[in-house]
Design goal:
about 80 residues; mainly alpha
């Protein structure tokens, strides 16, 4: 299950660490500052394209934005692939 609240929080944390305002991030990814605000507050579900654009703008791995559940899935798949060798 996708935790959009966690994704929104992760975007906000990464944006603040980059010392960016919502309007600055919005301009970088081609949306309005209101849209970024809605994503961060879990009022709008971001598209995969927007998540990729945000991760690029913030210079973080997409899995950083997606959160712990997706990091676990990625690690599990990696470990399964190792066992297949």
């Amino acid at each position: 299950m996708i935790d959009y609240q966690e994704i929104g929080n992760n975007i906000k944390i990464c944006r603040i660490r980059c010392n960016l305002k919502q309007a600055e991030l919005a301009e970088m990814v081609g949306v309005t500052s209101q849209h970024i605000s809605h994503v961060e507050r879990c009022q709008t579900k971001p598209s995969l394209t927007l998540l990729v654009d945000i991760s690029t703008a913030l210079r973080v791995d997409l899995y950083t934005l997606l959160g712990a559940t997706f990091r676990f899935i990625r690690t599990s798949v990696f470990l399964l692939n190792l066992q297949a060798c």
